[in-house]
Amino acid sequence: MSETETVTALSPMYGSRFGYALSNGTVGVYDKTARYWRIKSKNHAMSIHAFDLNSDGVCELITGWSNGKVDARSDRTGEVIFKDNFASSIAGVVEGDYRMDGSTQLICCSVDGEVRGYLPGGEEMKGNLMDTSAEQDLIRELSQKKQNLLLELRNYEENAKAEQNTQLKEADGQRGVIPANTQLQTSLSVNLGSDSQSAHVELCISTTNDTIIRAVLIFAEGIFEGESHVVHPSLQNLSGCVRVPLTPPKDVPVDLHIKAFVGYRNSTQFHVFELTRQLPRFSMYALSSPDSATEPLSFVNCTMNERPQRIVMWLNQSFLLPEDAEFQSAPFQVCFTSLRNAGQLFIKIKSGGEISISTDDIDLAGDIIQSMASFLAIEDLQVEADFPAYFEELKKVLVKVDEHHSVNQRLTADMAEHSNLIRSMLVQAEDARLLGDMKNMKKRYIELYDLNRDLINQYKIRCNNHTELLNNLKAVNQAIQRAGRLRVGKPKTQVITACRDAIRSNNFNVLFRIMRVGTASS
């Protein structure tokens, strides 16, 4: 699963559900790979914990915030069922028998050292944990909603009067009256960019008549900083069409939640149009001519027992094509160019259900295989793959891992030797002190000082070596995961297990064979 920010906390909950927190103030709950709900706050979640606070048999997600607030949210809906406030930021949320009376409490601690315990609600309080201050907050919130609805109703009444009096269009415009058939249209296209602007996906928002768009708000995960973007054209540039450049950093499908203010140039009130448009997963790839592109050497080949027309349907849904592709006959081929790095992608459908994906980006190949398998409901898929450049880099990393291991062993042996020397020198120095031989004592302590300095330097070298070793081992683990993502179902699990066994036995030839064909046997 991909999230928009760094994951700062995870907490197991009921069954297959777990809570999570991000560094941008988001908390939420997943059930396996599906996100149940999430909320975003301007404060940071300092700690999350699962605890059954309302005694309904299911744990709530307890969050301690940087502003001192503690809240309990339903694992199903994210609704707040309890909250409390501390004078300072929360340091941690745990559970335990704090009073040693055999009952478990929820324990919250602030950075100032204030500790509060909360007992689960009894039967009589089930589902009614909100205290009076929280209820007052709710009443205040509902009153605000009431005011907003009354204001909206008054606007509608004024508009109705304006229509009855058949006032001029200018006056209507000021009150926000627009033709009843006004619609908001959206379109997505690939823009190859210019000297002043890099290549991007262009979202075009337009109205169906002479009304203008005063402002547009777009909410989208992972595309904009802060997950939202506002376009507010100046008065001179107002028109019925707004173009927004989008550059999604990852290949994931994104829902664009669009809100647009529509009216006339002299309007003081505007109609808000809301709609949702999905950005296809591989929107950052532009259709190009196979004749003008060089086919990459890296490839993934697999056989699918699917009609080619279904694969082309997936293609139309996952990429931004000028017009829908149609399957005429095998072989069928399409070529794309990445808007991020100008890398080439070839997808070929051959007779007999054979699919060939050519790209030098192993992550992209894995994303395509997973997306295709999900769309076509394929449970198990074995492939043959070769990524010469990537595998060559991986070989270098494996050589470095071996080197780091041998350096680590040598440094450990040296440190053990130095430790023995220190022990013997310390005894000699103390003997000289007891015998009153100050000259020898001073000499031994100088040697000890030098040896200690060498030990500290060796330790620093060992630390750096260990950090580089961890980074290289991480790269090896990522390579195994990437090789797994080229497969689906059982073959995926088998490849990951077999690759780890090959690493364990130090058999790199077998490792690369498994990554290529999915099995160690010839």
**Intertermini distance:** 34 Å
Q: Structural class, please?
A: alpha+beta
Main-sheet strand order equals: 19-21-22-23-20-24
- Summarize the main sheet: 6 strands, antiparallel
Shape, please? globular
**What integer is the average pLDDT?**
88
Low-confidence stretches: 166-173
Strand content: 25-35%
Number of helices: 8
Rg computed from alpha carbons, rounded to a whole number of angstroms:
32 Å
Walk me through the topology.
Layout: E1 7-12, E2 17-22, E3 26-31, E4 34-40, E5 45-51, E6 60-65, E7 69-73, E8 80-85, E9 90-96, E10 105-110, E11 115-118, H1 132-164, H2 169-175, E12 184-191, E13 200-207, E14 212-219, E15 228-231, E16 241-246, E17 254-263, E18 271-279, E19 285-288, E20 299-303, H3 308-318, E21 332-338, E22 344-349, E23 354-358, H4 362-375, E24 383-386, H5 388-434, H6 438-485, H7 490-504, H8 508-517
Antiparallel strand pairs: 1-2, 2-3, 3-4, 5-6, 6-7, 7-8, 9-10, 10-11, 12-13, 13-16, 14-15, 14-17, 17-18, 19-21, 20-23, 20-24, 21-22, 22-23
